[in-house]
Design brief:
The complex is a heterodimer of chains A (259) and B (375). Chain A has 259 residues and is of the alpha/beta class. In chain A, 38% of the residues lie in helices and 23% in strands. Chain B has 16 helices and 6 strands. Classes of the chains: A alpha/beta (259), B mainly alpha (375).
Chain lengths: 259, 375
């Protein structure tokens, strides 16, 4: 399903060097609205570096990202969240000692306004916003299916629920693009199937998805298009079926062809 | 505490109101009871205890909520105190009223908080602690040395004869005539400090349960994740420094007015560490715990005053100097507390669960998640 209209996210010649190491070299890709786009590649290929550049944790050495045609270069991470890109992390980064509900409420930060004065005086606007934050957070917990554990500390949730909580927290920022870094890592087949259903539902509800994933079955079954990174370069792009037969991809994953 | 009561009392809201009313009456009657039973100096100690509650609650915002280790907190207290002292004393011959000076001191302390916060935002943990410690010392040394070439702070002699707090024509020093009853200065200050303490508690509670309060805790828990949730960590951390410093500035102004005298000696590193200990010993991030910590660490050391006379009565001479004993007992109390109650004396229910693994609920959950992992 190639994008018919202008892409939601475009990466133009993004490079990132750490000293002499080129973690990303001239990576370009375009993600259409409503797509599920996969980013795969062997370990150390630069996938997470790509995420970090996209979300502003790193500044790209060259090139730029465009969201809906607007350049994101030079923006601070929190400003990029405000523009509509949310992410999850490869090793889950929840606020461990806050409850599940509070975790999602923190996700509302970028979409709420009340400050110190409003909080101290307890103005009507602040109280209304706070009620709205709680309601939306509860709704999101229900959406990802962990509402019964709303008042448990995040670190006490089982692993799969922690992954779901991280997704709910990211969705609380009302993203246009949700970037997931290995959402199925460490999950068994049942959990992965449930995750797949959740991600499809999120896409159905209007959020574009970009995911890094090692689970080949999940990528092949879920993604509309896939890009393959190897040593920081984009070596292939296309539908999962096209990519899996690409000789360069096979070489990257399995080493050189047999003589 | 409430666990000691029968369950049917605990769940009854009327009981909560009755407890509040009883606490109110107790707090109102306390200076008179203490004055009659233990002497005027103990009323003074009570007033100081309230002052330290305010300071500890201010530091708790920075350390307990936002997780920024600040060892120079006393600098903001000093700013508040010197603003009051310099602008309401014969030193410059300026005599501004307290309702101008307290907000002004708070504002300047708040500014100092931002000025300190801005360059240290990239630092964390130990590094931040060292820089804030340095800042605290810089402020004290400035106060100590700014008596030449222009006499700004009167140096180590400090500023004396500070105006008492005045409501209209009534000054809180030496005594207030209230409806025909003469209220001694210590009592009057106790009530004033009590009012400010209640205000401080109210503000701290409101902040904790707000969008900003959650952002502070999020930064403490995981700064990268907080950024990824759209929190502008620079501004939110500065806000924590500014709010904490504001509490300190108000406390400083009240201190100067109460004492009638300030000198750099009151603002040493030891003072910062004492306030930090109140926060940590009470239960970091938990407002009732911090209040308890501040009260204990102000009142308990005063009890050592009785150790000297006690030794004389029992041994016939003073074998150990009580002031030596003070640091020894204080140090060992902290060590014991860290071993047996690392979460503080009265931690928040969440933090208590976090640090005591033999809680049955916790064990059950742990077993469940082990079950999940092995399934």
């Amino acid at each position: 399903m190639p994008p018919a209209e202008a892409p939601l996210l475009e990466a133009r010649g993004v490079s990132k060097r750490f000293g002499g190491l080129a973690a990303l070299a001239d990576v370009s890709l375009a993600i259409g609205r409503g797509e599920i786009y996969g980013l795969i590649g062997p370990n150390g290929a630069g996938k997470t570096t790509f995420f970090n550049c996209l979300t502003g944790l790193y500044q790209a050495t060259e090139g730029a990202f465009l969201l809906g045609g607007a350049r994101l270069a030079g923006l601070k991470p929190h400003a990029i969240v405000a523009r509509g890109i949310a992410r999850t992390f490869q090793n889950i980064r929840l606020f461990a000692n806050m409850t599940a509900l509070e975790n999602v409420m923190v996700g509302r930060h970028a979409r709420t306004r009340s400050g110190v004065l409003g909080a101290i005086l307890g103005t009507a606007a602040t109280r209304a916003e706070e009620r709205d934050t709680v309601e939306r957070a509860r709704a999101l917990l229900a959406y990802v299916g962990i509402e019964p554990r709303a008042h448990d500390l995040a670190k006490h949730l089982p692993y799969g629920d922690q992954r779901r909580l991280e997704i709910a927290r990211a969705l609380a920022t009302e993203p246009q693009l949700l970037a997931l870094d290995e959402p199925a890592a460490g999950m068994n087949a049942t959990e992965t199937a449930a995750l797949k259903a959740l991600l499809e539902r999120i896409r159905h509800d209007g959020v574009t998805l970009l995911l890094i994933e090692h689970d080949v079955a999940l990528v092949m079954g879920l993604c509309d298009r896939v890009a393959v990174l190897d040593y920081g370069r984009r070596i292939a792009e296309g539908t999962p079926a096209q990519v899996r037969t690409d000789p360069q991809v096979i070489t990257a994953y399995l080493g050189g062809a047999l003589p | 505490m409430s666990a000691l009561l029968p369950r049917r009392w605990r769940s009854d809201p009327r009981f909560a109101w009755a407890a509040f009313a009883a606490l109110g009456v107790l707090l109102a009657a306390l200076p008179f009871i203490v004055d009659a039973g233990m002497g005027r100096s103990w009323v003074r100690i009570l007033a100081f205890a309230l002052l330290y509650v305010m300071l500890a609650l201010g530091l708790n915002i920075v350390v307990g909520f936002a997780g920024l280790l600040d060892l120079g907190y006393v600098a903001f207290y000093a700013v508040g105190a010197y603003v009051y002292a310099l602008l309401a004393s014969p030193h410059f011959g300026i005599h501004l009223p307290f309702w101008v000076l307290l907000p002004l001191g708070a504002l300047l302390a708040c500014t100092a908080g931002v000025v300190l916060g801005a360059p240290t935002l990239r630092l964390r943990g130990d590094y931040l602690a060292i820089v804030t410690l340095g800042f605290g010392e810089i402020v004290r040394i400035f106060l100590n040395n700014l008596n030449a070439p222009i006499n700004l702070t009167n140096g180590p002699q400090g500023v004396n004869l500070i105006d008492p707090i005045r409501f209209g024509d009534t000054a809180l020093h030496p005594a207030v005539d209230l409806f025909g009853v003469s209220l001694p200065a210590t009592h009057a200050h106790y009530y004033l400090f009590l009012a400010f303490t209640l205000l401080t508690v109210f503000v701290a509670l409101r902040l904790q349960r707000s969008r900003i309060g959650r952002a502070w805790v999020a930064i403490r828990e995981d700064e990268i994740a907080a950024v990824a949730m759209g929190i502008d960590t620079r501004n939110v951390k500065l806000l924590a420094f500014a709010m904490g410093a504001t509490f300190g500035g108000v406390g400083g102004g009240l201190f100067a007015a109460f004492q009638g005298f300030v000198s750099p000696e009151s603002f040493t590193l030891m003072e910062s560490i004492m306030i930090l200990c109140m926060v940590v010993l009470g239960g970091m991030g938990h407002i009732p715990g911090v209040i308890l910590g501040a009260l204990l660490l102000t009142v308990l050391p005063e009890l050592l005053r009785y150790v000297g006379p006690l030794q004389e009565a029992v041994l016939g001479r003073v074998a150990v100097d009580p002031s030596d004993l003070r640091m020894l007992l204080f140090g060992s109390a902290l060590v014991v507390a860290m071993i047996f109650r690392p979460e503080g004396l009265w931690p928040s229910p969440q933090r208590a669960r976090e640090l005591s693994p033999d809680n049955p609920d916790e064990t059950r959950q742990e077993q469940e998640s082990l079950f999940d992992a092995t399934r």
